[in-house]
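Hi support team,

I submitted a single chain yesterday and got back a structure, but I'm not sure I'm reading the token output correctly. Could someone confirm the output below corresponds to the sequence I sent? I've pasted both exactly as they appear in my results page.

Thanks,
R.
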Amino acid sequence: MQLFFGAAAVLLFVVAADAANTPCSGRKGGIAGCQGDTFICNDGSVSASKRSCSAYMGGAVGLLGGGASQMTPTIGGDCSCRSGAYCTSPRGGRYCMTDGGKKSYLRK
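Hi R., thanks for writing in. Yes, this is the structure output for that exact sequence:
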């Protein structure tokens, strides 16, 4: 009986160690691509991850539609997250619009 509980505890530890948070996890649906260091998620939002997307993805950045350029301020008014441009709020917050029409704020 003790052997069974010991094996179950080891298995639980291995499963818990494997379940680490990743950028764009959960409802965001995974990583769609990179815009410089910013993760663009499958739901069209940006991740608040402190990791660098270009470093995290390595050589696969070009395959996922990302580039080396960072997110830039919008010029023509299009500030969708997938376009790589962001808008600035009156109080200085930087955000882009998700596919669902909601604001997704960028990290400072």
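A quick pointer for reading it: Confidence is low (pLDDT under 50) at residues 10-17, 61-67. Let us know if anything else looks off.

Best,
Support desk
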